[in-house]
Structure formats: C-alpha cells, structure tokens
Amino acid sequence: MADNCLEYTILIVDDEENILRSLRRQLVDLEYTVLTVSSGYQALELLDSREIAVIISDQRMPEMTGTEFLSLAKEKKPDTVRILLTAFCDMKDTVDAINKGEIFRYINKPWEEDELKRTVCEAVDRYVHNRETKRVVEELKRWSMQLEPWLCEKPDIGKSDASLPLVHERLQEDFESCLETFAGLIELSERRHRNHAMNVLELSRRIAEAMGVGAKELVDIRLAALLHDIGKSGIPDTILAKDDAHLTPDERLQYEQHPVRGQAAVYKVEILRDAGVLIRHHHEWVNGKGYPDGLLGDAIPIGARIIAVADALDRHAGNLSCGMRCGFVAALGSLEQDRGVKYDSAILRAAAPVAADLDEHVYGITDSEEEQVQPDDLQPGMRVSRDIRSGTDILIVPAGAELNHDNIISIQRLYALDPSHQSVFVCKTKL
C-alpha cells in the first residue's frame, strides 16, 4: 500500500445513498480520504477542483451510466484510476470498457469486503506508479535539454573550462539513469517480464557491436532497446497478462498499437527521436507481415531488426510461465524456424556468439559459485550474480554487472530508502 494514505483521495459515485454509506464504512480503515457524490455530473465538477487518486463508480445510474462517466473522467484526469461497480447483467458494457482502457478493474455486486479493499489498494498503487512515470518523463525532457547542446556541438576544450568533459559525462550518466528508472517503472505492470528491458539493452548492444554498427546508431539502438516497451504503458493489465495467442481481435488491435504509442511517447524528447523510429518498427517482420507498417526486409531499420531479435531472445530465454531461464543459446534455436520470416538471418548469425557468451559468463552461475554480501561490504570489482532490487521491486543493478564505486553507493542508498528483503549475491571469483 502507498505511504501517507491521507494524501490520496477515493471518490465514490452512486445514486443509492445506502451503497455510498456502505462503501465509505468499509474503506474507512484504509485511512484514505473518501468522498461521495450521487451522480456523474457532480463527480465531473469535483474533478475540476480536486486531485482524485481512484474513482469507484456504479454502472447503472440515471442520466449517465458508469462507463459513460468514466470515459469523460479519463479525459479530464487520465492518471486517475477508475473502478466500475457492476452487476452480472452489465458484463458486456464492462468488458467493452476494460478493452478500451476506460477502467482498471471491475467489482461485481454484491462485493466481498476483502476484495474491495485489495482492489482499492492496488488502484492507489497504480495511481502512484502513473504519477511517478509522468515525473520521470519530465525529468527525461529536462536532461534532454541539457544534453542537446553537447550532442549537437563539440566544445573547443582548448578555449573552455577543462571540467566541461566531466560535466558532459555526468549529465549523460544521469540521463541514462533516468532512462533505466523509467524502464523499471514500465516493467512493474508486467512482472512476469522482470528485467526484460535491461536484458534487451545488453543483447542489442552486443549484437550491434558484433555487426560493426556505427557509434551514433549504437547510441540510438541502446536507447530504443531500453524503452522499446514504453508504448505498453496504459494498455489494460488484462491484455498484457494474456499470451499472444489468446488475444481477441479487438485486444490484438489495441496491443499492436503499442510501438506507435511508444514512438509518440518519446517524440517530445529531442535526442530520443531517432530511437523512437526504432521503437516503432521493432515488431516488423523481414517478410513484410509484421506491424505496425508492414515494412519489408532492409526497409526495416537495422536497429529495429536487432532489437526484434534481442526482444524475442530474452522472452524465449525466460520460461515466463514458471519463472526459470532456459538460456540464450536454447532460445536462439527456437528462433531458427522464423529465420527469414520474422528475423534477419545476418542478425541471428551475429547473435549466436553473443548468446553463448552470456550463457557462460552471466547466467551460468550455480549456488556454489556465489556468496551473500551485505550492502556495506560490497567492493568495486565484484560481479553481481542475481538481480539487485529495491523493496518495491525496482531494478538497481542487473545480474552479471561488475560493481564500481557509483553503483555501490546507489545500492547502499536505495537499500536504506527502500529496504529490500532480498540479500545481495555476488560471484565468489571474478568471471
């Protein structure tokens, strides 16, 4: 549950006074601020003057249905999380609202009190996540504005302060840290894909370097790989939780728009625009039957083709149904059937030694080869054998990374600010 509960307001909308009283009474021990109104029109007026974290609305109300009200509420306050109270006979409208992204969850009447409280707490957590995502986006824009002059114009070091290269390096490091934080926030809505963005970044970087990609293109590939799933933010959890084969036609249509949404999301950040093109096209197939634009072969940017292979490799390497890894070499074998169909043959060839190296030197770690270390005892040069995550499941340092002074300080600070129940594990000997 989010801290400082009273700063989050729950708005309940129902035309029946007894329902309003019952919901208010059952939510009182959660210590959120709870407001009640008897119509959608009253609620819309309130949204103009109050910051609301969660709306709970009945479906059957006179003058305006719950789904109609929540659709208008979404336009006014897109970050506010919406819950619908519904009877079984209203399920068609409810499913439509879920698929259109109008609501976060629905609660059947009559409801169970424990289910109600759990759903409201999850909704508040989602609201906090939405606000943090927006904050990081604004931070990215700020760093973009500071970095842009450096990327467009190389300063004359002989005529300027000798500290400028260090300032540039620090700005770039902070910018990349913002991106990593943002990628971690995106993954919180898809917990079965833990650390996916960082894995795709590492795979894409290594494959691109093996193929001799130029320096500027490599930067764009790294940025796009880290943010390739940014367009999934805002897609209902019910869709993201499904396997691809089980999506309905309407759900598939919405899901397949996420690369377009991803490009649009980064477009306002100047130095991410070229990366945005790669984000848009990382689901294209080399045979022209991918999405969103049906590009064929070399018409697909090479960075997007590389990210497509890296994305598929990590998803196949992680047996997501049971939470275990099968390894990148085995995963690469499973991609062979789509050589020349989905994936570029040259990129699959370049990925082979990368997959073997990662399996051997990063993921081939057994219990006898690692040891548990307290954050205060970490030393530069140690290699992390398991992901290091904060108490709220934000990735701090991925498995396989070598520790240095800066990331050790980050681990120690985040363990103090956001305590984790997980220990830190490092390799006994440097790999």
Folded structure, characterized:
With 431 residues, the chain is an alpha/beta fold. It folds into three domains: 5-124, Rossmann fold (3-Layer(aba) Sandwich), CATH 3.40.50; 191-364, Hypothetical protein af1432; 368-427, Molybdopterin biosynthesis moea protein, domain 2. The protein has helices spanning 17-27, 40-47, 66-76, 91-99, 113-152, 164-187, 196-210, 215-226, 237-240, 249-255, 258-266, 273-281, 302-317, 328-335, 345-363, 405-417; strands at 9-13, 33-37, 54-58, 81-86, 105-108, 318-319, 324-325, 370-373, 388-389, 395-397, 424-427. A five-stranded parallel β-sheet has the order 2-1-3-4-5, sandwiched between helices.
List keywords for this structure.
alpha/beta, single chain, 3 domains, Molybdopterin biosynthesis moea protein, domain 2, Rossmann fold, 431 residues, 16 helices, Hypothetical protein af1432, 5-stranded parallel beta sheet, two-stranded antiparallel ribbon
CATH secondary-structure class of the largest domain: Mainly Alpha
Alpha carbon gap, first and last residue:
40 Å
**CATH architecture descriptor of the largest domain:** Orthogonal Bundle
Uncertain spans: 150-164, 319-325
| CATH domain topology of the largest domain | Hypothetical protein af1432
Number of strands: 11
Strand order of the largest sheet: 2-1-3-4-5
CATH superfamily of the largest domain, by name, is Hypothetical protein af1432
H-E string: EHEHEHEHEHHHHHHHHHEEHHEEEHE
What's the story with the biggest beta sheet? 5 strands, parallel
Overall tally of domains: 3
The percent of residues in helical segments reads: 40-55%
Mean of residue pLDDT values: 79
Q: What is the rounded Rg?
A: 24 Å
